[in-house]
Amino acid sequence: MRQLSGMDVSFLNMETPTTFGHVSSLNIYDPTTAPGGAGLEATKEIILERMDQLAPFRRRLVEVPLGLDLPYWVEDPHFDIDFHVRHHAVPPPGTPQQLADAVARIVARPLDRSRPLWELYVIEGVDNGRLIAQLTKIHHATIDGASGALMLAAILDTDPDFRPTGDQAPWEPEEIPSDDELLRVTAREYLRRPEKLIRLGIRTTRDLAKATRSGGLRTLADLMAQPMPGPLGQIVRERLRGSAGTEVDRPPALPPTLAPRTPFNRPISPHRRFAYTTVSLERAKTVRRAFGCTFNDVVMTVCSGTLRRYLEHHQCLPAESLIAMVPVSVRTGSESEMYQNRVSALLADLATNEADPIARLRRVQQSMTSAKETLAAIPADTLQDYTQFAPPAIAARAMRMYSRLRIADRMNPPFNLVISNVPGPQQPLYSAGARLQHFYPVSTLIDGQGLNMTVQSYNGNLDFGFIACRELVPDVWVLVDMLHDAMDELVELAEAALAPLQPKPAPAKKAPTKKAPAKKAPAKKAATKKAATKRAAR
Predict the structure, then answer these.
(1) Does the pLDDT at position 73 exceed 70?
(2) CATH of domain 272-426+444-500
(3) Is the pTM of this model over 0.70?
(4) Distance between CA atoms of 41 and 59, rounded to whole angstroms?
(5) Going along 202-301, which residue ranges are E strands?
(6) Could you list the active site residues?
(7) What contacts 292, CB < 8 A, 6 or more positions away?
(8) Beta strand 430-431 with 434-442: parallel, antiparallel or unpaired?
(9) Among 454, 458, 457, CA closest to 483
(10) pLDDT, tens only, 336-373
(11) Under CATH, to which class is 2-175 assigned?
(12) What is the dihedral sign for C-alpha 193, 195, 199, 205?
């Protein structure tokens, strides 16, 4: 039995009748490399063989009575693979739009909290039956983007010849704890909370002092630590002294406090639309080389150009720039628990009110740099630790009230949408021999943000997934064409910028002419006056 972190629980608390806490991925396979590969039975066998590596697939949620404390994960004693791995099919001819419609319907249903929080759908009939799709749906309380990539590596193989053997990996189910046991554990935890909260308050004050360059906050942190007796006070005082002199003189540039309103910044329905597309990774690298920016800057600018086109198309482009929330992994590699959320976020100016693509890229680049500086100034651990003190029952009620009161209709949002970029493996992967062609992310929505744009890199491609509220963005496939237009525009400018820097090809050297053997000169005739005149004229 393991208690969830406050960050994990926040994804449970966000759920309402219209907002779901699960994230998904749409994998497209070519089964011609191995008939039966990526099919229903082969997929079940692979998962059962590797259950010892797939903790989120085994664990079910156990909530503390009355929501008095954070819930726990328990190894499910009633695990049933047939409940979780399911068959689905799209009608002929199995177009991308038909597949996307099926995905939108499946992800618009919440997961059953009485079982491990995941489902996997094997979808047949794609591209006239030539391809097989798998839609994996798993709760965000169990994984973040980075741990999701680790899970993918555990399920798939780099060896195209691997086939499941039918063996099952050993793992130990646990007994579901009683309410009395959970309440006793909660009581012990409550006794330790005041000390934890004091430590956290001092640490936060110091971090805020660094982030805001405020000497007053630093003095407050010193005063908070001074009266603390014993080892704890000594540790805090040493930490404060050790961090002196680390302030940065230049304050970071932050986006506005609130974002402008758009058609997709309204209360959402439970219904979804989905669209997907692929862009060559090499094209993004061309833009990066030309303008000296990061790969993530390119992705953000392409998304910005897409949004600008979409809002212009609907004649509702705000005068102010849109703001994106960008999830950021804060994993260090030393985590004791691999399958746990270790994620923070930053706010980025998308410069959608800038018509010039290069100027837009520069503004996005500057905004991302400043946001990263701010994120580094306040450690993510500090922010995440506060979530440990929010009673789940109160947090869940707050989210439901926010949705019920339609707050998104009454005020501007703090950001317009989430844009996420998840790095993935750059070599081919296989499921029982079937080659993985594409790995499209299918993220989640929250009330007031009816559009999400997420990209996953895989094997030389960028696979984009657009999830949207069906009522707010009914024409989600328009975004696909506009994204390609935005990428084409940047690549064209990048190639023009790189052209003068390309080394000019060396002029081709003429092959030496082989001289013919000298012939005996014929006897000269007397030159006529006319011939002599011609040679002189040359």
Answers:
(1) yes
(2) 3.30.559.30
(3) yes
(4) 22
(5) 272-280
(6) 140
(7) none
(8) antiparallel
(9) 454
(10) 666 766 677 889 999 999 999 999 999 999 999 988 87
(11) alpha beta
(12) positive
